[in-house]
Amino acid sequence: WYQRRVRLARVTDGLPLSASIDNSNEKEQNLQVYQNQAKQLFRKLSPNSPSRCTLESGPMLIHYQIEQGVCFLIICHNNFSKKLAYNYLAELAQGFLERYASEIGQASRPYTFIEFETTIRKLMRSYTDSRSPKQLSKINNELADVQRIMVQNIEDVIQRGEQLSVLDNKANNLSMMSRQYKKESHQLNLNAQQWKYIAAGVGFVLLFLFLRYWVF
Question: How far apart (Å, rounded) are the C-alpha atoms in residues 150 and 144?
């Protein structure tokens, strides 16, 4: 998975904690675009933001996962497995929090934990090698259903100035409205069927009375 970027930031204020940029053949301008998008995204996060989210940025996808007040973010090409990307973030989060969980709140300067970059690169290499038994086991590992993770366009989030928590609430509201609509539609169909039976019953009774009193 080439063209990858990793960023770690504190959710409460967007303070960058650590990062890794690998060497690639991309133009510096494109690199700067993705870096700026990641920085702007960190400023949009809040404690109420969804814990996992995928953002589209041209041919790239920005995946992030929030654990214990830290956002673990990776930018990779859109043809890379989403499940594998979130496995990487989960393992990265575990390693970082095991070492620095008690120090995160006290960090006051950017990239306080820049030494963690070595771990970021080492873990990334284990996922990059397609022949690695570790990567194969990660692909086959049963993680949470990544298809249900919210997907948004990064430019929409940045330009509209909406926090991801707001977008997540909107998505949940739409889902609830959809379920409510289906429920009400089902109930209306049941009511319509009931009225058909009632109308048929009334018609039968009237016909019976008519035949009894006027014919017989």
Answer: 13
Best CA proximity match to 96, nearest among 1, 204, 8, 4: 8
**Residue 167 and residue 46 in contact, taking contact as beta carbons nearer than 8 Å:** no
Going across the sheet that includes 5-10, the strands are: 16-21, 5-10, 70-77, 60-67, 52-57, 150-153
Q: Please tell me the number of Cα atoms within 13 Å of 133 on its side-chain side.
A: 0
List the structure tokens of 49: 């933001």
Pair 20, 8: CB distance under 8 Å = no
pLDDT of residue 118: 93
In the structure, how many helices (H) and strands (E) does the chain have? Answer: 6, 6
Residue with tokens 């400023």: 43
Residue 26 φ then ψ, to 5°: -65, 155
Name the 3-class secondary structure at 19. Answer: strand
Tokens linked to 58: 């041209």
Identify the pLDDT of residue 1.
46
pLDDT exceeds 90 at position 76:
no
